[in-house]
Amino acid sequence: VGQLCSLFLTIVPLDSTNSTITTTTTTAITTTTxxxxxxENQLGEVFLQLFRVACVxxxxxxxxxxxxxxxxxxxxxxELCKGKSGKYTNxxxxxxxxxxxGQSTMHSIPPQSITTNTTTTDDDEHDTIEGITLHIRTFAxxxxxxxYHTPRNIALALLGEVGELAELFxxxxxxxxxxxxxxxGEPHHDDGDGGGKELLLLFGLLSEEDLDKIGQxxxxxx
Length: 222
Prior knowledge:
The protein is mostly helical and about 220 residues long.
């Protein structure tokens, strides 16, 4: 991910600090064929690893993304955050969602359809990358967030989300069936008998709430 962000920032225009971006899409990127190939390779590697994690966790990436967008819709109501870049906790008094309350997507129902001024997509189109991409763009456009999607912001956000996903797996390689998972961030010490089944042991010990958090972070990175 670091390599991807480094490459991304070397080929995109610098963020402007003296003007406001008002377009509905991010600043265009001018790349050479070689840079395009490098970007494709790095993006492919990131998504490959995400899908591997999702597969081991038996998580559907599509559902993870759609359910997280649904949750974000409740955390960031259009009428409250339109044109603003504040954190969701700024609206907690209105939404009831705090850092500890209302964060689960376990019972969320992915939207069946979305409608824009010119396009309507149904659940079938949510099965495609293009359909999900349109869904996310529609979400951001409705809140006038595209102006914040500068290369620097995107790169930093990507690094931050990957870090949060990695945190959920911290110390997992030191666990086995004799060491229950830690939920307070304290490491478990390996007694030397760990084998090649750390992941299987890990996911056998995780709760549904843990898997929900992993799914949300996978969605955020995606």
